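Reopening this ticket.

The earlier resolution said the output was attached, but the attachment link was broken on my side. Pasting everything inline this time so it's all in one place.
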Amino acid sequence: QVQLVASGGGFVQTGGSLRLSCTASGRTFSDWAMGWFRQALEKPHEFVASINPNNRTALYADSVKGRATISRDNAKNTVYLQIDSLRPEDTAKYYCNYFRGRTYKYDDWGQGTQITVSA
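Inline output:
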């Protein structure tokens, strides 16, 4: 059974930084690319970043490029997302998932973590 547990969110002012963590289980973590997505209120999930299994190739949405860094620790089955220079439009619930593509219809999002950025 797949379990995805994200943490590290919070309430920050514009310009602040947060580091999110997500621990995954149920699949062989080191075999999978991992992705971060976010969902603002009443909007669909939006791709944020992804990283390949060997920690060498990362992709970012234009909305966070230059402000976000994705990384992973395969020994800990954990993927991280550092976001700097946070903006009010980054306010959303953030989720990780075993990455199948930016627009794949994922069935299970697990437990996300909320980021709220005040203006």
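Reporter confirms the inline version is readable. The radius of gyration is 13 Å. The first strand starts at residue 3 and ends at 7.
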